[in-house]
Amino acid sequence: MNYVAIDKKHVWHPFTQELTAPDPILIKGAKGSILYKENGEEVLDLVSSWWVNIHGHANEKIVQALHKQAQTMEHVIFAGFTHKPAIELSQRLTKILPDKLERVFFSDNGSTAVEIALKLSLQYWFNKGQSNRKRIIAFNNSYHGDTFGAMSVAKESGFYEPFEDKLFHVDFINYPSTYMNDPNLEQTEEECLKEFTNLLDKTAQDTSAIILEPLIQGAGGMNMMTTNYLQKMVKIAKSYGILVIFDEVMVGFGRTGDIFACNKAKVEPDLICLSKGLTGGFLPMAITVATEEIYEAFLDEDFNRAFAHGHSFTANPLGCAVALASLDITLSDETQANLKRIEKLHRDRLEEASTLKNVEKVRLCGTVGALDVISTEQSGYTSPIGTKLKTYYWKHNIHLRPLGNVVYMLPPYCTTNDQLNKGWDVLLAGIKQL
Ligand SMILES: *Cc1c(COP(=O)(O)O)cnc(C)c1O
Hints:
Elements: H1 3-10, E1 27-31, E2 34-37, E3 42-45, H2 48-51, H3 60-72, H4 84-96, E4 101-107, H5 110-127, E5 135-139, H6 148-152, E6 171-173, H7 185-203, E7 207-212, E8 216-217, E9 223-224, H8 227-239, E10 243-247, H9 261-265, E11 271-274, E12 286-291, H10 292-296, H11 317-331, H12 333-353, E13 359-365, E14 368-373, H13 384-395, E15 398-399, E16 406-409, H14 417-432
Parallel strand pairs: 3-15, 5-6, 5-7, 7-10, 10-11
Antiparallel strand pairs: 1-2, 2-3, 4-12, 8-9, 11-12, 13-14, 14-16
The structure holds pyridoxal-5'-phosphate.
Pyridoxal-5'-phosphate (PLP) is lined by residues 109-111, 114, 143-145, 213, 218-219, 247, 249-250, 275.
């Protein structure tokens, strides 16, 4: 049977121009950092599937946790009912997260986690009698998902033209992007903080929250900021009394080298969104965690003050059981050592990359290494450079997925040094042959 032919007849793939895209690659299995093609070839997965698979594919401990939970209970409605996997997961995560983040609201994916954070921030002020606080601040080049609210807080990143008039107004500010040996760092941060303060001087009274991807902007181009900037920014936001929402959908669960970006920077957001790495890449699940103060603003005799929001699969027990198993692995000494090992290897190879004449802005945060390829062609997500590089990498059975002229590595934590070096060799060779 020609499965790819059937796929091409009936399937519609995400983020794909189906007319010009090459045939999808049929994958029959996956283990650790390797994807097995139908034809027997092995592909090295250096972007963790789609940034979700933190412990490698088909991890035995996670498989067992899933199997055990499936035999016990696959799902139960979460309104009026509860279950141990959700309770245990909430307890363990709130223990690791900053002190004030105490209340876990479950959903299904990164976009819903963001929608929930935005809705909670707006209803929080509404419930407190400050329904004028409707403005939201977000960063240029951010990505928060593909639902309408999530698109609204990221529309600067493009692709949203057909929906433009359906998106709500957001105040956008610049992200203080930096890189290794950045001579302009101080100036950039100063300017960005000033822009933020100026905006707040004018709008804070009517502002609900600021939402951001802390430390790394993912889809917007693996742009990185310093912990120093993050600390200052959060302090300013709090001094003006607005809520701070961290979208840690990509950076959560070890990506930045620490379990969460907020832990790494020692800052406390009022709301945090988590998804991708939450279940180790096994099942679609997300959480939005709020402070107790936010939660309390929803308590009332009147149902209208409650958060009337929910999804069919809220707190799916399979997802919770798998998330618990994944968390054990994330916190293990072995994984913690792997995070340091990967960061060190990335650093060495990025230094090498910085000597190439068509490479600039090499940058590193935890297990994410990134660089810009200099070219005269158009930049951005649809840059032809990105397509050329992707074709080269896939031909060499290395799964890398450049974001336009931005090439990055975001591997599962179990990836060995040999595998990483092989990936970097091909990554750099691809840039050299351009
Ligand atoms: C991927 C991503 C999202 C959206 O998550 P989905 O599960 O794809 O809906 C939101 N925010 C960030 C930072 C992401 O990287």
